[in-house]
Amino acid sequence: MFRENIIAELKLKISHEPQNIENYRNLANYYVGSNDYDNAMNTYKDILKIKNNDYQSLFNIGSIYYYKKMFPEALEYNNKAKQAEPDNYATYYSLGNIYAEIENFELALNNYKKALELNPNNSDIYSAIGYLYQDIDNLEEAKNYYTKAVKLNDGNWENYINLANVEQALGDNTQALMHYEKAYNLNNNSSKASLCLANSYATIKNYKKAQELFKKTVELDCENYSAWVCRAIAYSDDNDNENAIETLKHAIELCPDKINAYIILANILSDEKRYEEALSIYKTAHTISPHDSKIMTLMANMLALCNNTTQAIKYYKKAMKQDPNNNEIKLIYIEMANNFIEDKMKGKNE
Known about the structure:
elongated, 350 residues
C-alpha cells in the first residue's frame, strides 16, 4: 500500500505538470528502486517524448536493456546517449560492457580505453579490461590491469580476488594466497572471499586451514553448492574419502540437477574399487546430462572394470559419436573393440 501511494502521488505531480521532466525522473527512479524495470523504462521513454536527447534517460534505458540481456537495444540507446554527451566516460564503459557480453573484444577494448581517457583513475574500468584479457587467456595483460585496479582502489576486496585468480592461473600460488587473504581480511563475511581463500590453502595442501575456511563458507552460505563440492575435493585430496563422500552427497541433495558432484563422487567410489556403486552414480549423471561425452567415457571405463565389455564398447562408441575429434576416446574404443573381436575369435566371449 505504501508503494502504491508513492506512485499515485508521483503520477499526480506529473498530471499537474506534464512538461516537468523531474517528476517523470523521480517516478522512473522509484520504479528502478522497486526493481520494476519495465515501468521504469516506459517512464524514461516518456521523458524522451519531451526531451529526445535527455542523456540520463537514454543511458538508463540502455542499462535496463543490458540488464535484460537485450544487447542490440542496449547498444542503440547507449549510442544515442553518446551522441547526447560525447565526453561522458560512463557511456563508453557501458558500451564496453555490452561489447564484452557479445564477445566483440576489439570494440569492447576500444570503448573501455576511451572511458579511461575520460576517467583515468577509475579502478572499475581497469578491472573490466582485466576481465576482457583474462577471457581470452592473455593472463599477463589481465594481471597488469588488475594490479592497476588494486593500486587505485585498495579497499575493494573483489579487485584482490581478480588479481589472485590470475596469479593462481599463472602458477604463482604464493602471490595468489597473499591476495586472497587481503580480500578476506577486507570482507570476511563474504562467502566468495572465504571460498577463494579456502581453495587457495587447499592448493598448497594446507588442508587444516582450508577446512576451517570451507566450514566458515558454508556457515555464511549453507546452500553454496560450489563450496560443498570444493570442500569434498579437499577432503579427497587429503585422503579423507569418508568425509568427501558425505559432503558430495550433501551437494547432490542441494542441487540434484548439477552433475559435477555426481562425477566426483563416482570417481572416488571407483578409486575405492566400489565399482557397482560408482556405475550407478555415473548412470544418474548420464540421465541428467545424456549428451555429455565425458560421462559416457567414464561409464564405459566403469563397465570395462565390471567386465561388461559389450556395454563398455557401446558407451565408448556413443562418446566418440558425441565428440568425434577426441582421439583419446577413439583410441580406447578401437583397442577395446579389437581385443573384443580377438577374444571372440578365440572363444573367450562365448
